[in-house]
Predict the structure.
Amino acid sequence: MLFPLKSKLTRERKSELASFQKEAQARFRDIDLLNLAFTHRSCTNEDKSPNNEKLEFLGDSVLGMAVANRLFELLSDRAEGDLARVKSYVVSEEALAGIAFTLGIDRLILLGKGEEHSGGRAKKAILADALEAIIGAYYLDAGFENATKFVLHLIEPEIEKVLQNRHKKDYKTLLQEYLQKFHRSYPVYRLVRKSGPDHDRTFWIACAVGDAEYGPASGKNKKEAEQAAAGLAYDAIIAGGGVEAARLRQIESQ
């Protein structure tokens, strides 16, 4: 058996999972499988019991296929690069974590004590992975057709945001492509400082574009801080107008 152990769910936990299914519009026959999708590996590091990592692996593939197929239908007149760009946004950690927050996954996820104390419920990577695990679990429970419907119910609003240019932009990628194409250079990120205890660090990073430096901007990890610093550089270049702003807009519209 793929997942041989069954959990003993309390009445309260069953009620929580029932509410989640109603909110997510996904009805599971196997409630234990759904609960497993919420079980982070930090819960099972010691006893080696099953966690959601295999379901996450499966869900990632189901998600990718469902989104790729939908984009192929919607954007049949677009180039492959356009489809890939839209897909990269809607299946990104940022987008999936946002959906996870909306569904209340942060409240329901099962974490070990260490991960709980380090703020795991707010970590985008953990929440995005849990959503993929739920997709994988639903695929096993209800089949590919129902899993696809579930994915599109969650993802189509994100696709619409990208098509209407209302999504949260990947400033690091935009900035790098702009500099590579027009200046044959790269943005340089510099850690200015970090604060807080090990389990709750804040990083402050500045972004240099040529001779200009922007920031510092803060984030709960280096990746978030770099993205925020790149956003400051992006805003400054756009606000400056002229040729450089037009070039950056050109990269953004590709």
